[in-house]
Amino acid sequence: MSRQMVRPGGRSARVQASVHTAVRELASEVGRDALTVPMIAQRAGVTPSTIYRRWGDLQELLSDVAVERLRPEATPGDHGALPSDLTAWAEQFLDEMSSPAGRAYIRDALLGDPDGGNAGQCSAYAAEQIDVILTRASERGEKGPDVETVIDHVVAPLMYRILFRPDGLDAAYARRLVTAVLDPTGR
Amino acid sequence: MSRQMVRPGGRSARVQASVHTAVRELASEVGRDALTVPMIAQRAGVTPSTIYRRWGDLQELLSDVAVERLRPEATPGDHGALPSDLTAWAEQFLDEMSSPAGRAYIRDALLGDPDGGNAGQCSAYAAEQIDVILTRASERGEKGPDVETVIDHVVAPLMYRILFRPDGLDAAYARRLVTAVLDPTGR
Questions:
Q1: In A, which residues are within 8 Å of B161 by CB distance?
Q2: Residue A92 neighbours by CB distance under 10 Å
Q3: Residue A172 above 60 pLDDT?
Q4: Do the beta carbons of residue A83 and residue A182 sit within 8 Å?
Q5: Which of residues 72-111 of B touch A (CB under 8 A)?
Q6: Does residue A45 contact residue A18 with C-beta atoms inside 8 Å?
């Protein structure tokens, strides 16, 4: 999390937006590992000390940008039933998070994050999306697990394997996790 | 993984041992964030270029040391039955990995690890320990899940929460995960 509160529309918000944009542009131009604070400051039109004052160091800045990139862009699609909603969401989550860009963002979010707030935010994004899916299911009269159970038995295995044992990860695996969490007796 | 193969007992193995020892000693003396390659080289009695040649950079060296520290020190205890064996292992795993030192090692193992080999090694350690427990259970005639199922539904939720949402993690949570994986119908 950035060290200052951001007042929407104020100078602080404009600085954040221009610095984040500079990081994204430069990362695609020169590669993430070549980024430096002076380079980012110049592109964003701020002084390096503005960046150090606000983010502490490059790692924390990259962590903030990563969390922003990991924010879901839309509410989960409505396919008419819980199994298809959750399956579609899990497949998309795996697809995005296991891509080279997704992996890099997850690592950045975890790393420059001394207080754990950024990693917590990533997990909160997933929990919010799952909550939307489960609430919709409940409104249709469908029974389902709770959010924490889906976190434990769908999100956690996907993220664990992305980080620790990526071999053989595919959409079929995501579908099996969803099937098992919706029908634990069938395992 | 270090870039060169290590010949046990050879100069390469001695360099590795002295550099690893220097990292551990200095980390406890000055703190992990104050470590530099020249400082480590001096303590280990090697040149900085030896370290750069072998490990690439400080991050990769710290990743290597972290994996070594995460290696289990003993085979899992035999408590006479699968539920108690797996529960005791899961409680100890959570305890070690969620400690400040454990968290720091996990982050280091994940970070300075461009090819993912070190993270894979951490996961392989857990899989080996679980395999010992399940094989012992099978030899007693007990039925149980397979290793990958325990990874997905016990190790993954523990590690996911350690990294992304550590609030409220306790031994009771680890025990619930084990109970659920051994009796999926009871959830």
A1: 156
A2: 16
A3: yes
A4: yes
A5: 107, 110-111
A6: yes
Going along chain B from its start, the domains and CATH numbers come out as 11-56 (1.10.10.60), 82-186 (1.10.357.10)
pLDDT confidence band for B172 (50 / 70 / 90) = very high
Tokens of A144: 């389902």
Comparing A76-80, B13-17, B114-118, the range with the smallest average pLDDT is B114-118
Q: Are B85 and B22 in contact (CB under 8 A)?
A: no
Out of B110, B156, B184, name the one closest to residue A107 (CB): B110
Average pLDDT in the B119-136 region?
Answer: 95
Residue-level length of chain B = 187
- pLDDT band at residue A114 under the 50/70/90 scheme: low
- Interface test with chain B among A94, A106, A160, by most B beta carbons within 10 Å: A160
Other beta carbons within 10 angstroms of residue B154's beta carbon come to 28
Q: Which amino acid is at B12?
A: S
Residue in B107, B165, B180 nearest the CB of A123: B165
Mean pLDDT of chain B: 90
A147 contact residues in B (CB cutoff 8 A) = none
Give B186's pLDDT tier (boundaries 50, 70, 90): low
Out of A159, A177, A187, closest to residue B160 by CB: A159
pLDDT-derived band of residue B7, with 50, 70 and 90 as boundaries? Answer: low
